[in-house]
Amino acid sequence: DADVTQTPRNRITKTGKRIMLECSQTKGHDRMYWYRQDPGLGLRLIYYSFDVKDINKGEISDGYSVSRQAQAKFSLSLESAIPNQTALYFCATQAGRSEQFFGPGTRLTVL
Amino acid sequence: KNEVEQSPQNLTAQEGEFITINCSYSVGISALHWLQQHPGGGIVSLFMLSSGKKKHGRLIATINIQEKHSSLHITASHPRDSAVYICAVPGGGADGLTFGKGTHLIIQP
């Protein structure tokens, strides 16, 4: 089984809908991250978390919120989705200052 | 904020060729990451290095901290090496990464 999983893997939704993307890990890592990837722009940091009580905004947090329900779970929410949030979303985990492990990605399309 | 530049953006080569991908960054760092993204979209960490050189199979990564520059080399390239190679450095908070835009590599048989 994969160490970092994301659900759903693909989602098509409409403008204004609330969407939640979920990330789970079995690696026991303390740090978790949400990134989005857009063609021509590369990957950018949305939110990150040191542990359950620590949530921090990244480079492009506007329009997003997160929840760290447990050490193993980190969810990303779009309260009211808009078309320019169409992107590929990645969750990643990290133990201290080591390499990061990425989930398989969620392809989100907002119509 | 650290600015990360990769070159080339696109590279097509023949099987067996020696490949070099370059990465430069603007602010001093503790470590640099090289990642590989396959056509299916998944991202895999290849290397994390803070000095010198690391080797894994046919892949070699080097870094020059003083010059703020790193290179990823692929020896005896193979079509299965076709992927996007991404350089990344800490800078987004809690070592959240700042990424280059990637190098799209195609190895033709």
Observed structural traits:
heterodimer, A: 111 residues, mainly beta, B: 109 residues, 6-stranded mixed sheet, 5-stranded antiparallel sheet
In short:
The complex is a heterodimer of chains A (111) and B (109). In chain A, 0% of the residues lie in helices and 59% in strands. Chain A has 111 residues and is mainly β.
DSSP strand count of chain B: 11
Mean pLDDT of chain B: 92
Number of helices of chain B: 0
* Assembly type: heterodimer
Q: What does the overall shape of chain A look like?
A: globular
- Choose one word for the global shape of chain B: globular
Report the portion of residues of chain A in β strands. over 45%
For the record, give the distance between the C-alpha atoms at the N and C termini of chain A, rounded to a whole number: 33 Å
Gyration radius of chain B (Cα, Å) is 13 Å
Q: Spans of chain A of 5+ residues with little confidence (pLDDT < 50)?
A: none
Structural class of chain A: mainly beta
Distinct helical segment count of chain A: 0
Mean pLDDT of chain A: 93
The number of distinct β-strands of chain A equals 11
> Which two chains form the greatest contact, residue counts included?
A-B, 27 and 25 residues
